[in-house]
Structure formats: structure tokens, C-alpha cells
Write a structure and sequence with these properties.
This protein is of the alpha/beta class and 238 residues long. It contains nine helices and seven strands. The structure holds S-adenosylmethionine (SAM).
């Protein structure tokens, strides 16, 4: 899924107007696609990154030497007020226990007139890299929790959350990401790692059910195929 994240990262950094001279934070950095983009733009010493997952924080510390990496969640950022010029969260708002509090914390650590930006896949519109997986899962189990109600994952919802978090001059948009897959297996393999909601869901199924799900996905994706996805995104001023 790294190819999706890195295409998104460049667009997120553009949306937030990231440029040399700024001090910035990547909230929910995961394996570091956005942190890497930020380092290219402002230099490692001007980037901080947090994630509540120890393995992701360790991975980013290795991938981006010099970045101030900390184990923390958005709702409780270990930084003083006005520390950053911009705070960004890529594909994280829907994982926050309290998205308004998380965005509010991002605003707290950002200086007045600085920028907070976030994006979430268009889950409601099924324009995500995982959409074929959840379509197949729903065919087998119509009750499955498929992410379509995720915070920020429908048009206009990030704007609502940003407003509740006290941000102003909010702009929202959608960011297109198109990725070509040479084979079905290349797209399927990440699900087998047991990571994220889809990976955890797959790991919890009986083997026969896993195979049914994989074959239903395969039918939707004759190789080679291009997934045309998009994320809802918003930026606001502190
Ligand atoms: C889909 S990944 C996105 C990672 C990265 N931002 C990217 O675009 O590749 C979601 C990340 O959010 C992190 N996360 C989950 N809950 C969080 C929270 N409350 N605050 C900050 N990050 C959180 C997860 O550990 C995971 O690394």
C-alpha cells in the first residue's frame, strides 16, 4: 500500500503549503510515507512524527534519521503549544478515538496562522484501495463492518470535524490516487499480513472462507488493473 500513501503524501504536503524553513509534524506517521515527503521538503531536523504503534515509530526512526519520532496518539501530543508551523495527519482521523480532540491537539501544537491538514480515503464512495476487499466481504457477510461510516470518509465530514475543532478558513477537496497492479497477488498479499482492519478481519476467518473471499476479489480484478481511488482532504488555519 506504500505506493498509494506516497502519492497521497506529495498532495498532502502541497495542500498544507509545506516548504523549507517550516517546522512540521506528521501525526499517525505509520511506516513513514508522509514523514519521508516532509523530510525532502524541510529537512529531517525540522520534522517530528508520532504514532501510537511502537513498531511504526521504530520503522520511521530507521527510515528517517534525524526526525524527532515519538510514541504518542493524536489526542495527547507530547509537544508544547505553538511548536509547529503545520500539523498533518494522513489516513489517521478515522482511527482516532476522538477525532475532534485529535484535530484540536494538532491545532494546539501549531502556531497561530499555521496550518492543520488531514485526509481520509473516500470510504463512503468505495474509492479506496480496500474497496474490492470489502465488497467481496459484504457478499459473504452483509453485516460486515466495512469502514463506510468512518470519520472523515464521506464528502464534507472532514470540514465538519475541522469546524468542531475550532479551525478557520477551512478548505476541503479530494485527492486522486491511481495505482496500477501488475498482478492480483501483488494487491492481495498485504491483506495476508494481518495488519489494519482488513488484515485483522481476514486473519479471523476460517481458511475456507479466506479462500472464498480471495476468489471473489480476484473476479473483480483481472490483471493488470488500475485502482482509481481518492481521499477526502481538508486544511484549516489555526
Ligand atoms: C492507515 S495508517 C496511515 C499511516 C501514514 N500516515 C500513511 O499515510 O502511510 C494509520 C496510522 O494511524 C495510527 N493511529 C491509530 N490511532 C491513532 C491515533 N489515535 N493517533 C495517531 N495515530 C493513530 C496507526 O498506528 C497507523 O500508523
Amino acid at each position: 500500500m506504500g505506493r498509494y500513501s506516497s502519492q497521497l503524501a506529495a498532495q498532502m504536503a502541497d495542500l498544507a503549503g509545506i516548504e523549507r524553513g517550516q517546522h512540521v509534524i506528521d501525526v499517525g506517521c505509520g511506516p513513514g510515507a508522509l514523514a519521508t515527503e516532509l523530510v525532502q521538503r524541510v529537512g529531517a531536523e525540522a520534522v517530528a512524527a508520532v504514532d501510537p504503534s511502537e513498531s511504526f515509530a521504530e520503522a520511521v526512526a530507521l527510515r528517517c534519521p534525524g526526525v524527532d519520532v515519538r510514541l504518542a496518539s493524536a489526542e495527547d501530543l507530547p509537544f508544547a503549544m505553538d511548536t509547529f508551523d503545520a500539523a498533518l495527519a494522513q489516513l489517521v482521523v478515522h482511527f482516532m478515538d476522538d477525532p475532534v480532540r485529535g484535530l484540536g491537539e494538532m491545532a494546539r501544537v501549531t502556531r497561530t496562522n499555521g496550518v492543520v491538514a488531514a485526509c481520509v480515503w473516500d470510504n463512503a464512495g468505495e474509492r479506496t484501495p480496500l474497496a474490492p476487499f470489502w465488497r467481496a466481504a459484504r457478499e459473504l457477510d452483509p453485516q460486515v463492518e466495512d469502514g463506510s461510516g468512518y470519520a472523515g470518509g464521506r464528502e464534507g465530514h472532514l470540514r465538519e470535524l475541522f469546524t468542531e475543532a475550532g479551525l478557520r478558513e477551512i478548505e476541503d477537496t479530494s485527492l486522486p490516487v491511481h495505482v496500477q497492479h501488475a498482478s492480483f497477488e501483488e494487491w492481495w498479499e498485504p491483506f495476508t499480513l494481518g495488519v489494519g482492519p482488513a488484515g485483522v478481519y481476514l486473519a479471523g476467518l476460517e481458511r475456507e472462507r479466506q479462500e472464498q473471499l480471495r476468489e471473489l476479489c480476484r473476479e473483480q480484478l483481472p490483471a493488470p488493473f488500475t485502482l482509481e481511488t481518492r481521499a477526502w482532504a481538508a486544511r484549516g488555519i489555526v
